[in-house]
Each structure stands twice: as C-alpha cells, then as structure tokens.
C-alpha cells in the first residue's frame, strides 16, 4: 500500500515537471515568434536600434527558458536537481541585464547625469554577480582530473 502510494506520488511529480516543461517550451516558442514579428515591424518602420535591443533581450530570455527546460527534463529523467543549470541561468540573466542596460544607457544618459552613477553601480554589481556565479560553478563541478 505504501509502495503504491509512493509510486503514484513519484509519477505525479514527474508529470507536473513535464507539464511545466511543455509550458516553458511553448512560452519560449511564442516569445521567439513574437520577437520575430515585432522585429520585422520595427525594421520596416526604420527602428534599427529598437530591433537590436529587443532581439538581444528576448533571445537571452529564451536561452534562460531553455536552461530551465533542460533542468526540468533532467529532473524528470534522473530525479535529481543540480545547482549548475541554475547558476548558468543566473549568468545569462546578469549578462542579459548588462547588455540591455548598457544599450539603454547609451541613448538615455549623459556623463553629467546623476542617474549615470546608478547605472554604473548596477553594472558593477552585475559584473560581481557574473564572477560569483562563475566561481560557484567552478566550485560545484568536479574537476576533470579527479
């Protein structure tokens, strides 16, 4: 009886993760498709910088969704969750924010603008996060020589 109940709960957990994976995959597909349609519209209107920024932002977001999907599929297959995929998601998110922030800052801020210091502080924090995530990946992954 206990074994059957445990098995039902395991199957239910796997189904939940797989369903979440399907939703993430569908969301990524819709995101990429809408990015393409919106990008074409902006290109036809002559908004080249908007296209580049939107493509960069949304493609990196799609990469984050792909990494989450990879983690869900691996959990459904193996039953274990690893830290490395989440650290990779953190790196992609930080790099995404750095790229978008710098692209927006070029258009918005002047060096004399006081808000420019806030942007610099955020960029410094994001750079620190990327280094911290990379070090965490190095510490979590077993080295090839062992």
From TrEMBL:
Transmembrane stretches, start-end: 12-33, 53-72, 84-103, 115-140
Cellular localisation: Cell membrane
Q: Membrane topology for this entry?
A: Multi-pass membrane protein
Stored Pfam families:
PsiE
Its domain of life reads Bacteria
InterPro entries in the record, alphabetically?
P_starv_induced_PsiE-like (IPR020948)
Q: What is this protein called?
A: Phosphate-starvation-inducible E-like protein
* Classification lineage: Bacteria, Thermotogati, Deinococcota, Deinococci, Thermales
């Amino acid at each position: 009886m206990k074994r059957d109940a445990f098995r039902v709960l395991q199957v239910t957990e796997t189904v939940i993760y797989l369903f979440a994976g399907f939703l993430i995959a569908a969301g990524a597909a819709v995101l990429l498709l809408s990015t393409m349609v919106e990008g074409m519209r902006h290109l036809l209107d002559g908004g080249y910088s908007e296209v580049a920024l939107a493509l960069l932002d949304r493609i990196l977001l799609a990469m984050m969704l792909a990494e989450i999907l990879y983690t869900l599929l691996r959990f459904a297959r193996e039953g274990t969750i690893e830290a490395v995929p989440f650290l990779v998601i953190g790196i992609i998110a930080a790099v995404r924010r750095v790229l978008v922030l710098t692209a927006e800052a070029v258009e918005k801020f002047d060096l004399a603008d006081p808000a420019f210091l806030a942007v610099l502080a955020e960029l410094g924090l994001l750079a620190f996060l990327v280094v911290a995530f990379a070090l965490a990946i190095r510490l979590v992954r077993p080295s090839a020589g062992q």
